[in-house]
Amino acid sequence: MSLTTTGKATLTTSNTPPRKEEFTIRRATFTDGPAIGRVAAITYNNTPLTSWLSPRREKYPAAYERGFIERATTRILSPRNETYVACLASGEIIGAAQFQREGDDAGARKMIREVGVVGRVWMWVLGCLFWVYFKLYWLVNGPDRSADPEAVKTFSEWCTVDREKHWDSYEERADRWHALSVVVLPGWQGRGIGKRLMAEVMRKAERDGVLVGLESSAGGEAFYKRLGFVLLSRFSDDAHALEGGGGEMAWYPEGHKDKTDGEI
Fold first, then answer.
1. Does residue 188 contact residue 195 with C-beta atoms inside 8 Å?
2. What DSSP assignment string belongs to 197-236?
3. Which tens digit of pLDDT belongs to each residue from 70-82?
4. Which residues contact 251 (CB under 8 A, 6 or more apart)?
5. 35, 93, 235, 240 - which has most CB atoms within 10 Å?
6. Domain covering 5-251 in this structure, CATH number
7. What is the pLDDT of residues 17-56, one digit of tens each?
8. Rounded to whole angstroms, how far apart are CA atoms 90 and 87?
9. The pTM is what?
């Protein structure tokens, strides 16, 4: 399968009529981490969850953005990760998606094996270097002043509970691709970019015969349902109240033995 696909998007400004501009979907490299983090920081900036986790992000934008850059880069340096970016001809990244291969079935083992021993060693070395870099950054600049530490701690606890409840407790959901983050800059949304990014992981899930799992906000539910995802379950009560909806969703390739038709 080609790692690059091309489509069309419409760019609109206040001073010029809409025009067509090509965008390309390609595999990301670890050097794309900062750009992916910035796209995520912009995309998530005005969501209820971000407002709760990072109430001082407008006052400390660099610290707010740095957290997204750290997470994006760390994910890329995992042998179980595949990250894709949507780029303009100029090279500007306008969208990104990060997918994690979970489980220990033949497909997961093959993926790790294809990375190779040398590749895994390099990922480990780079991961250690970035870990030291980010630790030194926070040591020199102080903790993330954009965030509410108590909210971050509470959210982490919610994530642990929901993961155990909705994923780890179901043996049939262990082998899967999981969408960790799918982001498209606000000005480029609604133009098929998110769909093209998701198509990458859906093809891989079809090949492996496994489901695609993700956590969707209330605003994202309709988008994922149009792609064929079903709602498995709602978030825990507190998280559901904060988001105003949303929950765990899954897409099943045709003929998947554990396919469900909706919420349980």
1. no
2. HHHHHHHHHHHHT-EEEEEE-TTTHHHHHHTT-EEEEEPP
3. 999 999 999 999 9
4. 202, 205, 211, 212, 224, 227, 228, 229, 230
5. 235
6. 3.40.630.30
7. 344 678 999 999 999 999 999 999 999 999 889 999 999 9
8. 8
9. 0.88
